[in-house]
């Protein structure tokens, strides 16, 4: 494995400029994906995961704009800005940052493929599934129409579509949810990209179908040596397929660790709380310990550490100081929490925040 | 217990809810003439009346005791939401009885039924669309009370505010509109509304599926608290097995309109008996990276409820499909044949040569010569690209001769089990005496 | 523990969908102009009603010119101020000119507005209400009720309205109230169909099912949930329909139905001006302009309402 990561996202900032204010959907997010690994991006809705992955593919439309950070993929600069803002106060793009045309022709689909949660978003309902797949292969791999068709049928079989030659001529609505998702995977693979970004692809599927898709992903990763960036909110899936995990909260990455470390030795209170609040199929859980409140809107994040108003371990210093992501264990886990020594924030001596803080409402028996 | 009838022992009190033989079929044909088929064969009248019925729920029976939570689990399309609606008479059943506190709901007049609704309430899946966006939530919570003539206007307002507090919201939210709340809060408003008439029984149709993980946990805790505080009985419907395990006392597993297994929650999860339950439980990704690789996969798609498979509806995907009695075939040979049947059905392999395929699926020639003949013939069809004929042959000679295809198993208690609480609808646990031999 | 919303202020003013709509309407400049026009015309019409019908043109005759009879010494077919035609030069006494009988056109325009608005609004109101009830019942219950009501409605829809009006008026007379009834009849089907299609989708909403499950009676469900949630397109259509109906009323007066002479009405004025187009084209301009401006005003308001309802209320 080479030492430059396949995908490197550094300090990405994406904002949405709306009437109600500026939504800081992604506020300084960094992570990497190495060749051949599956990296998970976990978080609840509103955390900014979908915005982050769409920023990687530069699929952000007005009123959203990528306003800062650097993204490099396979040596190419997908997003990069000069240090000094331009004359209009807006950040200026770096020279080597790819243009929109280059993104479209070189990167999207052929180098990086994106699988959405809802297959109907990517499948055109008025064309046959086989036709769409064949066209994709034809364009991206330069094959003849017949050769592309053969390859398409082959891929359909590989992803487990029964009777692939017949179903080639079927329309998207004639497939079940799980089958459609397989078609999307087929389309993602058709161009043999280096990186596949999957945005909650199994959330809408049944458990048994989800299981099939996960197995499929495993096999295909093995066969094509593809790397995955997998966005989900389901910790079960994370445990099942990810190698490394990034936990996102309100536009930031708050913990990064290998999957085993994350589950067995979480370093951030949010990760811990998340793990404690999920019921498990393999054991009876007596009491779920949910987090209080809900994730606030990214338009006006809390001061200091964004999690402080819901954190059971919050102290006074957490309201004032904003922690960035730092290495906190020898194993190489990263966490953005002031309680660790790496921050030297005098956490121990600071007064704990209790339920007397004005943000909490009345008391609730738990 | 020596009596193998399918009814559990009579307890001292009748269960709060008893459903027997509940059936709901939908007519799927469209238009005035859609249900007629034109098939000219020169002999008889060419038009046949052939209505396409969707057999959403078929002969479902279960009981729920006072104060317990019965979890109903199944994947999408299994009919659980339809079952919930038929239970509440929001849809009228095609057949079957629903006894609530001894009274048969299916036989009540419209007005009597409407009055009974005071005791049975429902929480829906989507917290947003179940609240009228143009009404203030105070009015929403009071509406059921009004409908049943409970209290006066001041009394209702007071009760509504009390309920807001009980479900964890502020009483001053009384004057707000639904769109001002988050998903979790809206679901609490739904709870407050349901509780306003002091029901005995609440049906919850996927109440947390649309919510975030941490909010889901809050709502589940609230549900349990409310159950204790108000003495409620729940029917909790979900596709999420983890949630079901957490909140239920007993569990019923549903597949394609029928119940396949019912039992106490811990025992069912630790020791599932029905192959579908087993498959379901082992498909779930467990949030524990050290238990990777222990998952098994259930292949294929759920068949259409318009034309469900004969006999046991799960037989087309069952990893434990029973071999036809007439063949002399060992367990492992049969497992191979089974795999071949399904692979041919899905055309999931390249049909290059007979010998190669034979090698690929079977471990040498089959003992029973008749079996081997059939298999060879089927493989030959696939090589000749006659997949349909191959499938047909394999289906007629193997799949349809299995007892699983000939008789539908009934939901019976397992022979040899000490109690009759656990019931399974599977020929492997036949009520005719010994469990059928199976590897 | 309570779930926190982003807004924790204690003085919280709930904003219903309606308040959002009116704010939106006010912000949009074209619909604002439409509202000004409509309000102006309505005020004028109310004045015309009070003075004309109740007070029998008391103020008109005292301080202005009677719209019914020609002022003494006036001449017919005078052009507006500053223009000369073969009948004379316009003066400020009759700023828009005089009609063929020498009556002041401006006065007749003002008092003619009453007919337009009266029939327009009343007929539309009646038609919308009736149509809403029919459509709501039809859409909610479905089945044979739906079939019977819809076929009835469609029958009326199928007959061309002028023909229908002529039939009604030949049977029952030509007066103002007959005209109102007639226009109501042809307006009802439009609303019945409109509401029915809204109701068809509203009744599938989960909150309707929730209300049923809670035991709310059908008639209360329709009244409290179905109709309020189906109203948006009805309101839009109603404003546009007033404009349409005013045109219809004008067409009817043009044909001699509706308000009878000498009661002033814009359509009648247009009819009368036809004969005198060559000598005095100005006579026909003013009633036509009045109709145009009024209908445009209602259209602008209707469009504004449609925009205001559309994406906002999806929240």
By CATH reckoning, the class of chain C would read Mainly Alpha
Largest interface: A-B, 59 and 54 residues
Number of domains of chain C: 1
Order of helices and strands of chain C: HHHEEHHHHHHHH
Mean pLDDT of chain B: 83
Reported by name, the CATH topology of chain C is: MetI-like fold
In percent, how much strand structure appears in the residues of chain B? Answer: 15-25%
Structural class of chain C: mainly alpha
Q: SSE order of chain B in H/E notation?
A: EEEEEHEEHEHHHEHEHEEHHHHHHHEE
The helix-and-strand class of chain B reads: alpha/beta
Helix content percent band of chain B:
25-40%
Radius of gyration of chain B: 26 Å
How would you describe the shape of chain C?
elongated
What is the number of strand segments of chain B?
14
Q: Categorize the overall geometry of chain B.
A: elongated
Which strand order do you get reading across the main beta sheet of chain B?
8-9-10-5-11-12-14-13
- Termini separation of chain B (Å)? 27 Å
Q: Please tell me how large the radius of gyration of chain C is.
A: 24 Å
CATH superfamily of chain C: MetI-like
Q: In percent, how much strand structure appears in the residues of chain C? A: under 5%
Largest sheet of chain B: 8 strands, mixed
Structure description:
The complex is a heterotrimer of chains A (366), B (439) and C (315). Chain A contains twelve helices and 14 strands. With 366 residues, chain A is an alpha/beta fold. In chain A, a hairpin with a 2-residue loop joins strand 4 (64-73) and strand 5 (76-79). Chain B is of the alpha/beta class. Among the domains of chain B are: 14-31 and 48-255, 3-Layer(aba) Sandwich (Rossmann fold); 331-401. In chain B, 33% of the residues lie in helices and 17% in strands. Chain B has helices spanning 80-87, 110-116, 137-147, 153-166, 183-195, 213-230, 241-247, 265-270, 275-283, 331-346, 354-361, 369-383, 387-397, 403-406, and strands spanning 17-27, 36-38, 47-49, 53-64, 69-73, 95-100, 103-104, 120-123, 201-205, 233-238, 250-255, 258-264, 412-413, 423-424. An eight-stranded mixed β-sheet of chain B has the order 8-9-10-5-11-12-14-13, sandwiched between helices. In chain B, strand 11 and strand 12 (258-264) form a beta hairpin. The two termini of chain B are 27 Å apart. Chain C is mostly helical. Chain C has a single domain (28-62, 98-309), classed as MetI-like fold. Chain C contains eleven helices and two strands. Chains in contact: A-B, A-C, B-C. Chains A and B meet through helix 6, helix 7, helix 8, helix 9 and helix 10 of A and helix 6, helix 7, helix 8 and helix 9 of B.
């Amino acid at each position: 494995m080479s030492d430059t990561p396949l995908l490197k996202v550094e300090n990405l900032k994406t904002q949405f400029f709306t009437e109600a204010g500026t939504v800081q959907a992604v506020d300084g997010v960094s992570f990497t994906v190495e060749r051949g690994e599956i990296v998970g991006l976990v978080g609840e809705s509103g955390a900014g995961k979908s915005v982050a992955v769409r920023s990687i593919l530069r699929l952000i439309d007005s009123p959203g704009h990528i306003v800062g950070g650097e993204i490099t993929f396979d040596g190419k600069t997908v997003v990069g800005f000069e240090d000094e803002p331009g004359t209009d106060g807006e950040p200026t793009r770096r020279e080597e940052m790819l243009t929109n045309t280059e993104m479209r022709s070189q990167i999207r689909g052929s180098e990086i493929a994106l699988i959405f949660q809802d297959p109907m978003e990517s499948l055109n309902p008025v064309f046959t599934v086989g036709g769409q797949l064949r066209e994709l292969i034809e364009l991206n791999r330069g094959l003849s129409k017949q050769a592309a068709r053969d390859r398409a049928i082959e891929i359909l079989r590989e992803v487990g579509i029964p009777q692939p030659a017949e179903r080639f001529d079927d329309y998207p609505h004639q497939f079940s949810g799980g089958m459609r998702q397989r078609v999307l995977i087929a389309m993602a693979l058709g161009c043999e990209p280096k990186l596949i970004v999957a945005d909650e692809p199994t959330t809408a599927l049944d458990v048994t179908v989800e299981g099939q898709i996960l197995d499929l992903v495993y096999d295909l990763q093995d066969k094509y040596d593809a790397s995955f960036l997998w966005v989900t909110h389901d910790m079960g899936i994370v445990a099942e397929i990810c190698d490394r995990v990034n936990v996102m909260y309100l536009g930031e990455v708050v913990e990064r660790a290998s999957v085993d470390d994350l589950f067995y030795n979480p370093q951030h209170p949010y990760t811990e709380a998340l793990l404690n609040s999920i019921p498990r199929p393999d054991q009876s859980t007596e009491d779920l310990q949910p987090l209080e409140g809900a994730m606030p809107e990214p338009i006006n994040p809390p001061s200091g550490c964004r999690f402080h108003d819901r954190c059971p371990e919050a102290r006074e210093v957490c309201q004032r100081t904003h922690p960035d992501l730092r290495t906190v264990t020898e194993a190489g886990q990263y966490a953005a929490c002031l309680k660790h020594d790496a921050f030297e924030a005098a956490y121990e001596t600071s007064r704990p925040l209790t339920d007397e803080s004005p943000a909490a409402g009345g008391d609730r028996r738990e | 217990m020596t009596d193998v009838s399918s009814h559990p022992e009579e307890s001292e009190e009748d269960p709060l809810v008893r459903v027997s033989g509940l059936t709901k079929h939908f007519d799927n044909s469209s238009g005035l003439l859609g249900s007629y088929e034109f098939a000219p064969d020169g002999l008889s009248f060419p038009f046949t009346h052939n209505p396409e019925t969707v057999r959403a729920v078929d002969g479902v029976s279960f009981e729920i005791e006072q104060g317990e939570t019965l979890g109903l689990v199944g994947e999408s399309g299994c009919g659980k939401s339809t079952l919930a609606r038929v239970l509440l008479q929001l849809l009228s059943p095609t057949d079957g009885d629903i006894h609530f506190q001894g009274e048969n709901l299916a036989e009540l007049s419209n007005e009597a039924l409407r009055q009974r609704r005071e005791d049975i309430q429902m929480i829906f899946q989507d917290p947003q669309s179940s609240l009228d966006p143009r009404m203030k939530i105070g009015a929403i919570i009071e509406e059921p009370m009004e409908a049943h003539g409970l209290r006066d206007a001041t009394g209702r307002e007071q009760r509504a505010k009390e309920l807001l507090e009980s479900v964890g919201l502020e009483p001053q939210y009384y004057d707000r509109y639904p769109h001002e709340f988050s998903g979790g809060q809206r679901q609490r408003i739904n709870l407050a509304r349901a509780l306003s008439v002091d029901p005995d029984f609440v049906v919850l149709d996927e109440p947390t599926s649309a919510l975030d993980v941490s909010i889901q946990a809050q709502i589940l805790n609230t549900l349990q608290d409310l159950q204790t505080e108000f003495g409620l009985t729940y029917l909790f419907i979900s596709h999420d097995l983890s949630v079901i395990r957490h909140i239920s006392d007993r569990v019923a597993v549903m597949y394609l309109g029928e119940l396949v297994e019912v039992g106490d929650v811990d025992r069912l999860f630790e020791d599932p008996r029905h192959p579908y339950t087993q498959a379901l439980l082992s498909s779930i990704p467990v949030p524990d990276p050290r238990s990777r690789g222990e998952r098994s996969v259930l292949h294929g798609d759920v068949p259409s409820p318009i034309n469900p498979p004969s006999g046991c509806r799960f037989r087309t995907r069952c990893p434990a499909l029973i071999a036809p009695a007439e063949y002399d075939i060992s367990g492992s040979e049969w497992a191979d044949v089974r795999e071949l049947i399904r692979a041919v059905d899905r055309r999931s392999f390249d049909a290059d040569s007979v010998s190669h395929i034979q090698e690929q699926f079977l471990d040498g020639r089959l003992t029973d010569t008749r079996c081997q003949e059939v298999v060879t013939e089927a493989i030959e069809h696939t090589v000749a690209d006659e997949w349909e004929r191959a499938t047909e042959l394999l289906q007629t000679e193997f799949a349809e001769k299995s007892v699983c295809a000939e008789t539908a198993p009934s939901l019976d208690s397992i022979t040899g089990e000490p109690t009759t609480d656990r019931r399974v609808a599977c020929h492997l646990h036949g009520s005719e005496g010994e469990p059928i031999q199976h590897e | 523990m309570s779930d926190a919303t982003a807004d924790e202020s204690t003085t919280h003013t709930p904003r219903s969908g309606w308040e959002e709509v009116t704010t939106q309407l006010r912000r949009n400049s074209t619909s604002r102009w439409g509202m000004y026009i409509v309000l102006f015309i309505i005020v004028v019409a109310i004045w015309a009603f009070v003075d004309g019908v109740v007070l029998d043109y008391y103020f008109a005759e005292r301080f202005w010119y009677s719209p019914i009879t020609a002022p003494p010494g006036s001449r017919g077919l005078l052009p507006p101020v500053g223009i000369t035609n073969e009948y004379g030069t316009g003066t400020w006494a009759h700023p828009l000119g005089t009609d063929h009988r020498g009556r002041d056109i401006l006065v007749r325009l003002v008092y003619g507005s009453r007919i337009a608005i009266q029939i327009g609004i009343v007929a539309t109101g009646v038609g919308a209400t009736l149509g809403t009830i029919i459509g709501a019942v039809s859409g909610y219950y479905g089945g044979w009720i739906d079939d019977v009501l819809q076929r009835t409605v469609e029958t009326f829809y199928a007959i061309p309205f002028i023909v229908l009006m002529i039939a009604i008026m030949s049977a029952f007379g030509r007066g103002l109230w007959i005209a109102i009834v007639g226009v109501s009849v042809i307006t009802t089907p439009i609303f019945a169909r409109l509401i029915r299609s809204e109701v068809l989708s509203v009744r599938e909403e989960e909150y309707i099912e929730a209300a049923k499950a809670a035991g709310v009676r059908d008639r209360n469900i329709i009244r409290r949930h179905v109709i309020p949630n189906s109203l948006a397109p009805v309101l839009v259509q109603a404003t546009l329909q007033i404009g349409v109906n005013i045109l219809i009323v004008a067409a009817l007066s043009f044909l001699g139905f509706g308000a009878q002479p000498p009661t002033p009405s814009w359509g009648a004025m247009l009819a009368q001006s036809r004969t005198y187009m060559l000598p005095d084209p100005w006579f026909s301009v003013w009633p036509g302009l009045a109709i145009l401006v009024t209908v445009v005003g209602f259209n602008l308001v209707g469009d504004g309402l449609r925009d205001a309802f559309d994406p906002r209320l999806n929240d």
